[in-house]
Each structure stands twice: as C-alpha cells, then as structure tokens.
Amino acid sequence: MNWSLLWAQLFNGLTLGALLVLVAMGLTIIFGALGVINFAHGAFYMVGAYAAYIAYTATYSFVISIVAGAAVAMLLGLIIERGLIRYYYKRPHEDQILVTFGIGIIIVEAVRAFFGGIAKRVPVPTWGEGAVNLGFLYYPTYRIEVLGIVGAALVILYVVLYRTRIGLIVRAGIEDQLMVNILGINVTRTFLVVFGLGSMAAGFAGVVNSPIVTVNPEMGALVLVQSFVVIVIGGVGSFWGAVVGGLIAGEILSLTAMIEPAYSQVMLFAAMAVVLILRPQGLFGVQGRQ
Amino acid sequence: MSKSQTGKFNRRTLLKAGAAIGAMPLVNISRSFAQETIGNYPAGTSGPSVFVGLTIPLTGPYSGEGDDMQKGYKLGIEHLNNGGGLVSKIKTLTGKGVLGKKIEYKIADTQTQPDPAVQAATNFITNNKAIMISGSVSSAEAIALEKVAQRFKVLNMVGCSGANETTGKDCQRYAFRSQPSAFMAAKALAPVLAKELGTKRKAVYLVPDYAYGHSVHQSTSEFTKAIGWTEVGAQICPVGTADYSSYLLNIANSGADVFVNVAFGADSVASTKQAKQFGVLDKMKMVVPNLSAFQGKEVGAEIMQGVYGTQDFWWTLAETNEAAKLFVDSFEATNKYKPRWPAHIAYTQMLCWADAVERAKSFNPHEVIKALEAGHKLEMPLGEVYYRECDHQQVRAVPVVVGKKPSEMRNPEDLYRIVGLTPGVDVVPACDAGGCKMPSI
C-alpha cells in the first residue's frame, strides 16, 4: 500500500467532492423548493462559464468574471422562469422535464452557434497559480482555494435558505402554497427568486470550474449527469444531502481511480444503485415528498 | 358444414393465389436487376446528381474536430462541383461534378457516438440513395460505419479514425481509410522521440477507454519499448471525463519522466490543462501520439511548447508542397483560419473518391473499389498517396511535429514545427500484421 498516494487521493476526493457539491447545489435548490427537475441545469452552468470567459477576456479580472458568470446565469434563470417555467409548476413532472430539457438544448445550441464548438480558455486566476507542497502531496493552489470558495458559497446559501424571511416563505410555500397566498404573501415572486438563485448557483459553479475543465458548449452535459448522481445519493431536494452526496461521490471517484482507474465512473453509478435499492429517497431525503 | 369448409378452402386458395400473383412481378424485377444492383447503384445515379451522406460529430467531445471536418467536406464538394483548389491539379477531375453529375450532400450530427452515426448513415443510404458515405471523428463511429457500408454495399471513405482496427481486424471491403493508424503514427514518432528525448525514458500513459485509446496505447508502448523506454503505468479513463485530478495524482506518483497523453478532442484539452496545474508537465515531458486538431490553440503555446506528437496534416506543409498550398489557401479564404487535419482528411477523401470514380468511369461500387485498390498514386498535400489493396489503408507520409515556443511563433496559428515527414511505406504494418481479413466484394 502506497500511503502517500492514499492520503493524496483522499484529499483529492475532498476537493473533487467540493466541486461536485457546488454543481449539484443549484439543481437541488430548485427541486427542493419548486418541485421542478431542472434539466437545463447543465446549460446554466455552461452559460456561467462562457460569461466568465467573456468577462475575463475583457477585464482580466477573475473576481469580475465570477460576478459576471453568476449574474448572467441568474438573469437567464429569471427570464426563463417568468417566460416559461412558472406555467409548468402545476403540470406533471414529465412536462417539466421536457420543457427544461428543451430549454437546455436551445441554450447549448445558441452558444455553439455564437462561439463555435472549440474550447475557450479561462486561465487560473493569478492568486491561484502554481501548486502547493502539502508534504504528502503536490497540489494545485487553485483547487485548494476552491475548497474555501465552495465552503463560503454554501454558508451563504444556507443562511439565505434557512435563516432569512425569504427562505422561510420558500419553505412554507412548499408545504402549503394556498395558505401562504391567503396570508398575503406573494409566493409566485418567491418562486421566481428561488429559480434565479438556483440558476445563479449553477452559473457560479460554471465560473469556478472554468479554469479547470474545458469551456465548450458540451461542458454542461457531464455536469447534469454528475449532479443527478450526487443528489440521488444525498437525497433529492436536500441541502445537506447535496453536500454529503457530493463528498461521497468525490471520494468514490478518487479512491477507485487509485485502485483501478477504469472503474471509477462505474463505481459511482454502482454506489447510486445501492443507495436507490436500500434507501430510495437518498441518504438525507424525506420519504414520499413531492 | 361441408359448404362452409369448401368456402374456407376457396377463400384461402384465392388469397394464396392472389399473394403469389402479387409477388411475382417483384420477384421478377429483383431477379432482372440482380446482376447490376449493388447497394444504391444504379438507383442512386439515375438523376443529374449523386448523393453523398456525411455523418459528422457536431456535438459531443469531438465537435471541434467535427466542425473543421465539415468545412473540409464542403470545400471539397464545392471544388469537385465547380472547380478550384486541388481539383485543378488532378487530371481525372473536371470541376464539373463527378462523371458529369453534381454532388449533393447532407450532414447529420453523430453526437460523437456510434449509434446515431449508424442511424444517420442508414437513413442516408435507404432514403437518400447515397452513393457514398463519409464522416466520423471517433474510431468507435468509424468502425460502426464501416460495417454499415459493408452491409449495404455502399462505399465509405472513412473520416477521422486512428484505431488500428479500422484497417485491421475490422477492415471492410467497402471502406477506405486515409488517416495514419496508431501503428503508423507510433512508428513514425518513436525515432524522433529517441533522438530528442533519449532512450532511457520511463513513460506513463493516460488512455481513453475505447478502440482508439487502446490502439494508440498499445502501438506507442510497443515502438517506444523498441527504443529502450519502459512503461511504468497506464491510467484508463472514460471518454468525456471533465476532471482528471485522480488520474493525474497517480501519474505524478508513477515515477515516470514522460507523460504520454492519449486523450482526444475536448478531453485532451482538459487533461493537458490539468496536468499543467498538477505540476505533471514541470516534472515530465509530454508526448501526444496523435494531436487533436485544436489542442495547441485551445491549450495555448505556453503549455504545448516542446510537446512531441504526430498529426494527419499540419498547414505549414503548404510552404513546401504545392498541393498543400492549394488546399490551405482555398480553405483559409473561405473559412478565415488555417485548416486542421480533420478538414484535410475530409477534403482529400472526397477527391480520392472522385478520382477513383472517374478512373472507373462508373459509380458502380465494385468498379470504384477496384480503382481504389489498384494502388493508383495521387499527388496530395502530403505528397504521393495510394490505398493498399490488402487492408484499404492509405499509404501516405506521417508528419511528426513539436510544439513551438511562443517566441518562435510567426502568427497565432503557427503552433508546431514539423520535425519529420516519415514516408508511408516505412511505417505501414505488414499486410498480415493487422489482422485484416478482407471480406469479399
């Protein structure tokens, strides 16, 4: 047993997991609050990365790119919720899946038509360049910083969803929309905010990932699949489920890769299958929730 | 009772007789055409034009290559139909279509997957009466499409495919490949590696998990062992991996001093970028046996400088080869950038096919196959090329390149220096080595 490689892979599993938590969060927020499975999630993620690419080539500031990526994805989310999604809240899940899937395709193809299929480059920010020697491991600085970025983002999201008035309304709206309306609170507007927030989270994840992965129109397709695995393991719609699911997924990928690289993806899906058999609602999911 | 039985009997007999009479003309027609009908010949050639079905990945991880390739086909077809470019230099070609018939085409997106590719090709063959199919970027698509061509007896000028199997154990009578196989690329690359990087190297591989990846891994490993290198490990990863961190940790930990990156298309960009971030490229030299079309541009010269590899074609050949210049200049005039090798494959495969049809004086696939198998030499952007009869591999030169330093680049497209142009005859495998058992016509 190579211990230094084991520690290295365990640590890598953590940062890999953190990135997975980040990309899954937008999907789980929207489903948890609105009951809509957003198949355009990957497209929002991709739009965030492209917005970051434009902002970066214009300003060479990664901070501005983060703001731009999150803002553009949120704006797009708000427009789409107003124009389309809100007519689908009361319709069956199949309709919601079809409409969001269609939106995703339109966004991806629009980006492809405009920017082409060749990957765009978003470099690692200057404060994230190089690698750090952790003693047991030589690790990219940026990935270590991503741990902090993801942590901070999750704290902010948690506070918004669980410690503010708007979060309270959202959660009340899920339980009984009619009652919340009777109390004189505009639930529709709250739902708009939630959809914007979920889209923003996806766009933010796109920006944070853009210096690591390839920025191309396809990049969201992979993320959609991974996000689903994460939230199925963790429990669909659960905040903590996404966190734990992401970290578990990261460790599975990393540790399997150490032993038999070809099987790491397979193991991830095997883990999902096991969870579905033993605890279909996911580790943190609530049984029977609509 | 007996009446009804008789009635039943009569009706059945009548039905049977009717069916038999109805089927008779069909039987006769198919019999009378049995001698001449081969695939869509002659049905697909009765009008003033012929149809070519192009199956190209416009989405998926190889869509960058696919887009370049589609531009190569369009240019080739334009030149065949209306003259221009390299068509003016090839005696058999008129620039007024092929055998006087204009080429019509459609492009279908394969999504970089074999199933949609097969579906689209089948549709082109059955509904559009395609006389030839071409396309594909991944070898998984290419091999599947070769089988389609063989089954329907329609010619297939294979698009991009580097796997040995394409003209090895999966070779087909109706399919011809121009790109160098992994074997040819590795054989051309190894002497350059021995000269430039030395003979006592330890190599670690990153291998995408499908035919192409395994071919390149196997062939590169074989030829670098012959120059004294050892293989210390291989990381097999799925196509379309976004994050290579766990593989790269293993690679960094492998004790190797050369990183052989076989990942392709968008995957090559992500893996190379991340290898840089993990410090792998500071500790090891990177070798890419088969460079992706836009890898240099997408990754940037800072990272790609000093990287050795091969590719089907590189545009600076235009500086020394007239045919290459005709192709590169006309491509750049239309598309405003230097063509990459998928466009080169698309363009030259169209021209090689058209030349064979003109020489055969017929679209009859049997005649065209014989014309292609005849080993007739054509002046192409790589110099003289021809297809081998035994496995339908094109014998052509293989360019070996190295990534230029940013300071050496004359323009943003000037990413590689050609360090060798190995003649095809020196690198093709022996006819019986690849495992090709050529099916009968």
Question: Any overview of this molecule?
Answer:
The complex is a heterodimer of chains A (290) and B (441). Chain A has helices spanning 3-34, 41-59, 62-83, 93-115, 141-162, 165-175, 177-182, 187-209, 219-234, 239-259, 264-278, and strands at residues 131-133, 138-140. By secondary structure, chain A is an all-alpha fold. Chain A has one domain. In chain A, α1 (3-34) packs antiparallel against α8 (187-209), α2 runs parallel beside α4 and α3 packs antiparallel against α8 (187-209). Chain B is α/β, with parallel strands linked by helices. Chain B folds into two domains: 43-180 and 316-396, Rossmann fold; 183-311, 3-Layer(aba) Sandwich (Rossmann fold), CATH 3.40.50.2300. Chain B has helices spanning 2-33, 63-82, 114-127, 139-152, 182-197, 211-226, 245-252, 266-277, 280-283, 295-299, 301-304, 322-335, 341-360, 365-373, 424-427, and strands spanning 49-56, 102-109, 132-135, 155-158, 175-176, 202-208, 230-237, 258-261, 285-290, 308-310, 378-380, 383-387, 394-395, 398-403, 416-422. In chain B, strands 7-6-8-9-10-14-15 form a seven-stranded mixed β-sheet, sandwiched between helices. In chain B, α3 runs parallel beside α4. The relative contact order of chain B is 0.13. At the A-B interface, α1, β2, α9 and α10 of A face α2, β7, α7, α8 and α10 of B.
Write a short abstract of this structure.
The complex is a heterodimer of chains A (290) and B (441). With 290 residues, chain A is mostly helical.
CATH class of the largest domain in chain B: Alpha Beta
**Which structural class do the helices and strands of chain B define?**
alpha/beta
| Spatial shape of chain A | globular
Per CATH, what is the topology of the largest domain in chain B?
Rossmann fold
Ranges of chain A where pLDDT stays below 50 over 5 or more residues in a row are none
Q: Which geometry of chain B do the CA atoms define?
A: globular
Report the C-alpha radius of gyration of chain B, rounded: 25 Å
End-to-end separation of chain B in angstroms reads 58 Å
Number of strands of chain B: 15
**Cα radius of gyration of chain A in angstroms:** 19 Å
Alpha plus pi helix count of chain B: 15
Number of domains of chain B: 2
Number of distinct beta strands of chain A: 2
Greatest interface and its participating residue counts:
A-B, 44 and 38 residues
**Judging by the overall fold, what is the CATH architecture of the largest domain in chain B?**
3-Layer(aba) Sandwich
Order of helices and strands of chain A: HHHHEEHHHHHHH
Biggest β-sheet: strands ordered side by side in the sheet of chain A:
1-2
Stretches of chain B where pLDDT falls below 50 for ≥5 residues?
1-8, 24-34
